[in-house]
Amino acid sequence: xxxxxxxxxxxxxxxxxxxxxxxxxxxxxxxxxxxxxxxxxxxxxxxxxxxxxxxxxxxxxxxxxxxxxxxxxxxxxxxxxxxxxxxxxxxxxxxxxxxxxxxxxxxxxxxxxxxxxxxxxxxxxxxxxxxxxxxxxxxxxxxxxxxxxxxxxxxxxxxxxxxxxxxxxxxxxxxxxxxxxxxxxxxxxxxxxxxxxxxxxxxxxxx
Length: 207
Known about the structure:
The chain is 86% helix and 0% strand. By secondary structure, the protein is an all-alpha fold. It has seven helices and no strands. The longest helix has 36 residues, at 118-153. The termini are close together. The chain has helices spanning 3-30, 37-46, 48-75, 82-114, 118-153, 158-178, 184-204. It has one domain (3-204).
């Protein structure tokens, strides 16, 4: 199995498992979200041990999928959309690195809540949400720019490029306006759909 196929499969499998895991954590395990901070902190504390493993795992899976964008960017080298895709991927890297801060503060929130230090948990949650809002916005701007590059170069169907642009604009706006709003799941689902689309396209390409 060559690199192209491995990348294609990683962009199909990793984000799907990650988004399902993320939905499971929020809807089944915690049954709460950041839009209800007090309930969310209590749920994190009650599920402290599971959170320690699940949050990093979901994050790693998303990073694997984002890493696949590097293959997309490299395949565009020398083309009309390479510069835009390259800058977009640069922003994705910056945003992804910052998102690790969100995860770290979320784990700290769970630990503080578990120990009954709700004032500390509240501060950690506020930091987590601040990191999350900015990092997600930066990442989504990057994904949107990669979509612009795809439209310029036409190395993939324009539909996936358009989806990435719309997703980038929508999710960036939600992140900056109200990051805790559950509607942001629409943007994340659209990102997963675009990654799967790109992964399938890579698998169909000839060596």
